[in-house]
Structure prediction request, 523 residues.
Amino acid sequence: MSLKGAAYIAGAWEHPTRKAPDKSIALLHAECAKGALEDAGLTKDDIDGYFCAGDAPGGLGPLSMVDYMNLKCRHVDSTDVGGSSYQVAVGHAMEAIATGRCNVALITLSGRPRSEGQATGTAPRPGNPTAPEMQFEYPYGPATANLYGMAAARHMYEYGTTSEQLAWIKVAASHHAQHNPHAMLRDVVTVEDVVNSPMVSTPLHRLDCCVISDGGGALILTKPEIAKSLKRPLVKVIGVGESPKHQMGGNIDLTYTAARWSGPPAWEMAGIKPSDIKYASIYDSFTITVLMQLEDLGFCEKGQGGKFVSDGNLISGVGKLPFNTDGGGLCSNHPANRGGITKIIEAVRQLRGEAHPAVQVPNCDLAIAHGTGGAIGTRHCGSTVILERE
Amino acid sequence: MAYVARKIPFVGTPDTNPETKPYFEGAGAGKLMIRRCTSCKKVHHYPRQLCPFCFNDCAWEETSGKGTIYTLSVMERANPPYAIGYVTLAEGPSMLTNFVDCELGALKIGQDVKVTFVKTEGDGPSLPFFTPV
Ligand SMILES: [Zn+2]
Prediction:
């Protein structure tokens, strides 16, 4: 049985905050849930399935948040694969809806690393030493920035990718962010600005890195009958895929991401190809993340990502593939250090025709929202969602 | 820029995971130990008792300590800066490490390196690091 079209995204809401020192993480989750319900035209009592990931407070998956929000659920799922968890949740919610285990699924993400002063990208974080890799990695100082830096360095070595090409990704994001009043960084930047910004971890500069922000977002997925009874434009989920990639016993190859594996099942389910896509939300923890995922999803040949992203090709109204028209993680926000859900929300805005007029893609009927969670330098998950305006 | 060593942290002890204790004992004796499958004969890293390729038991053996740099990134934001990278060992697998006792800015992918051992902070064990040949 194909899952294609088994669920619709009926509600999508992004928290406008970028710094929330006076709110609890649980409150941010609940505010996002309320926003998504109002967007859909549904009420709290309609929810019978709840999906969250490791950013949900409490430590026992969904339990604290279903208690806090007082939800009566028939189905819960808390698969945690970092920032890609929310694309995974869309797929899992669609399966649950298709098999009758729930009718209205709520997905939430929230967090406040900015208020908590986390040195997210540059400070190695010790984990539990019983994690089998921990004692073989933590002593060497793996931080988010250098784990992605290692992938960028190898990509440059194998394919001749340049810092200037990576910079074009940030330039495109900044062109979009200037129109987003909530974005943290609204100034348009140039390639020179990016390559002249301070080096964080070679070859990634400060402006190759995403922002650190508080905030969150939520989605409501429903079965087709319910979606069609509501007043919102219909956004149908037509393709999903998920796959982890890791060190493979020491057979390290950092030239590609898990998108190489999560993409094909999503394309096959959707029955479309990359050239059919009008708008792409691509996970942008770093510029290199975008470049590699574009290659791995099939938007260009492996190794040609640098050329593909150059000269404004990702800028809405200018290039062939408008991406992250809200400014993305590079300029707008990266709540809880997890950008998966905001990728889906901006894709929904584009398909509804509700993106900012300056970046709205005309006749936007097919969009992709791809997530990468974890670190491409060690282990991560790729998750792909393809959406259609009906 | 002269090389400045950083303090190397360690979490837990070599006893935390009995499965990998011989790795740290080997490092303490100046040996980089690796595991080879008794069935399919493949080597892997980080070490496991059950082969990650066929799930049969593995035996320990000492490596040559030689390899080449697969990739690296110099964390310039840290004080002191340090170079993290993967070394592809002569025996096959690649391992995460740091490059020490060298000009970090001169390190290159493909460069030949050899193992050296550095003691971690406090009562922590010695661990393998790499330096240009
Ligand atoms: Zn084996």
The beta strands of chain B are 33-37, 43-44, 58-62, 66-75, 82-89, 94-99, 112-119, 126-132. Chain B touches chain A through 45 residues (CB under 8 Å). The longest strand of chain B covers residues 66-75.
